Amino acid sequence: MRIIVQKFGGTSVAKPETREMAAQKIINSYKSGFKPVVVVSAMGRRGEPYATDTLIDLIQGVYRDTHPREMDIIMSIGEIISSTIMANTLRSKGYDAIAVTGWQAGIITDQNYGNANILEVRPDFIRHALKQGKIPIVAGFQGVTENGEITTLGRGGSDTTAAVLGEALRAEFIEIYTDVDGIMTADPRIVSNASMIRYITYSELFQIADQGAKVIHPKAVEIAMNAGIPVFIKNTMSDSPGTMISSRIEKQQHAKGRKGDQLITSIAYVTGRTQISIDTKHGLNEQNTILRRLADNQISIDIINIFPEKMVFTIDGHATEKALEALKDYADGCQVIKNCSKISAVGEQMRGVPGVMARIIQALTARNIDVLQTSDSHTTISCLVKGEDTINAVLALHEEFRLYEQ
Ligand code: ASP
Ligand code: MG
């Protein structure tokens, strides 16, 4: 049995017209010999009648202290409505679809209401339906405890449902259908010639979590990665090939012979960082104390460089006041630059290739951008720049690695 999982997000199932298009995607894969297992989100966004946020507002608008157990019951309804409607859409076209709730699908979770963890998947019901030639339309985002309590999987959790079903049913691949063509090489609001990424690795996707998380839940990607199942991000409303998320080896096979130098896959950025530099004449002891104080105050450090008589690190801007209070004994030799941005060039292919850092620094300095700090890993090189240089820095790196040429 060649099983694939096709998940449709809220906007894909919101209206009769979009449901038609979603149905067509399912029918196409059915006709190409696949056994589709469909997962759906609740219909539409806040304000639309059966969207998750609407259901939350419905109850919390009146009863502020609703028990989490009941929150999960009401929140699970949106996906059930959606799966029933979608099953009927397919049936009206002559396809034998069947609506399946999360508990019928065997999604067994712990009792952590609102953000339950999946303990096990028992997909017998779905397997049976597939054997009978049916197309299961599974309500995403929901599960059941061993005691029969209804749970939900955390916001965006329908992606997780798709991933665990893909794993349990050994699907060939998972398709996440949404309202954009795929994941972009950079934020299109900044980079007008940003293009769609055709191939990205699982780990590259984690690096651009802020950018990528809008189209797929990172937890779902992690499950797919561990199961070795490729994930496609596709648009319900177009025939665009979408973005394929896979292992490095699969990416290399598919991307062979493509344009561009392919060293870098994406340029990501985070704003609102604060850089702190402290003179530490007493060396390691002093540096250890500083690190301990930050840790005791739950402040996490990002880019850090330690020198014999100085340390420089970056923190989330919101933690600035707290950090300065914790480090007030060092105020004398302390320099603070607020409102910095971290610009990251992400690409697993740069591993072991010399000169990438040089190209990055050159591209930035050519535009008169000061590089305040850098960090690098096998997949990512990040540079800290001043806030006012954010857009220019993203543009510079996007140009340098010709990411408009996908
Ligand atoms: N409907 C749920 C939410 O809005 C789950 C999902 O859409 O993935 O978070
Ligand atoms: Mg989503």
Q: How are the secondary structure elements laid out?
A:
Elements: E1 3-8, H1 16-31, E2 35-40, H2 52-60, H3 68-91, E3 97-100, E4 107-109, E5 118-121, H4 124-131, E6 135-139, E7 142-144, E8 150-152, H5 158-168, E9 173-178, E10 199-201, H6 202-207, H7 209-212, H8 218-227, E11 231-235, E12 243-246, H9 248-255, E13 266-279, H10 284-296, E14 301-307, E15 310-316, H11 320-326, E16 334-346, H12 356-366, E17 373-376, E18 380-386, H13 390-400
Parallel strand pairs: 1-2, 1-9, 2-6, 3-6, 9-11, 10-12
Antiparallel strand pairs: 4-5, 7-8, 11-12, 13-15, 13-16, 14-15, 16-18, 17-18
Q: What do you see in this structure?
A:
By secondary structure, this protein is α/β, with parallel strands linked by helices. Helices cover 34% and strands 26% of the residues. α1 (16-31) links the parallel β1 and β2. Bound molecules: aspartic acid (ASP) and magnesium ion.
Please state the oligomeric state of the protein chains shown: single chain
Bound molecules: aspartic acid, magnesium ion
Number of strands: 18
CATH superfamily of the largest domain: Acetylglutamate kinase-like
Tell me, briefly, the overall form. globular
CATH architecture of the largest domain: 3-Layer(aba) Sandwich
Number of domains: 2
**Spatial strand arrangement across the major sheet:** 3-6-2-1-9-11-12-10
Which CATH C-level class of the largest domain is it? Alpha Beta
User: Count of DSSP helices?
Assistant: 13
Strand content: 25-35%
Secondary structure category: alpha/beta
Rounded Rg:
24 Å
